[in-house]
Amino acid sequence: MARMPCRRFMRPSGAGGTDMRHAFDIDGTETEVWLARDGQAYRLEGDAGRARVSLDGQGLDRELSVDSRREPVLMVIEGEVIHLHLGGRTYQVRHLDPARRFADADDSAGGDVARAPMPGTVVRVDVAVGDAVTTGDPLVVIESMKLETTIRAWHDGVIAELHVAAGQSFDRDAPLVTLGSGAV
Q: Which end of the chain is more exposed for a tag (fewer CB within 10 A), N or C?
């Protein structure tokens, strides 16, 4: 996966809080939006404009509110993918993990590097160099802006290099873990 250009991931919001940039894959198209809490709803801003959104109800049948418009929605979660049936159409939505988006292919080492999505501190390192891991295994837990994030293996492989240690601070885009493509 190619490295993303430098982008700001946080900005002050109009309500005195902080907006965070999120990326979603919607039916195969990557879409970025700014998202912030707004009471029981969220304030969303993207290329299509700005809206206040909320999802009400439980189970499969829910109601999506966009500003003052309310629309019934059927929602099924399958792993990382959310299937939505809305307005007579079906959509597949997946939140794109910032660490995965920052994975930088390193052809010379035959591995991938997980990079920090924003500045923070390493809370815990769950692996050692040479450990075999499978997709989804926890590698490193980081904290940024009082939010803990677990960086997980994005493919099967072997830990080729640890770039950080517990308690260490790091900048945005700093390398965290190199995952080699060795046999598990």
A: N
- Rounded CA-CA distance 56/53 in Å is 10
When divided into structural domains, the chain yields a total of 2
- Which residues sit opposite 134 in a β-bridge? none
- For residue 116, the model assigns a pLDDT of 83
Instruction: Report residue 175: phi and psi, to 5°.
Output: -70, 140
* Structural domain span for residue 133: 98-180
Parallel, antiparallel, or unpaired for β 18-26 and 147-152? unpaired
Q: Are residues 133 and 64 in the same domain?
A: no
> pLDDT-derived band of residue 110, with 50, 70 and 90 as boundaries?
very low
Q: Distances from the Cα of 94 to the Cαs of 48, 84, 175, in angstroms?
A: 19, 11, 25
Residue 83 belongs to some domain of the structure: yes
Same structural domain, 67 and 114: no
54 vs 6, more confident: 54
Interstrand relation of 18-26 and 10-12 (parallel, antiparallel or unpaired): antiparallel
At 19, list the tokens. Answer: 């907006």
Tell me the residue type at 86: L
pLDDT value at 130 more than 50: yes
Quick one: 47 and 84 in the same domain? yes
Tell me the pLDDT tens digit for each residue of 59-84: 777 898 889 899 999 988 887 788 88
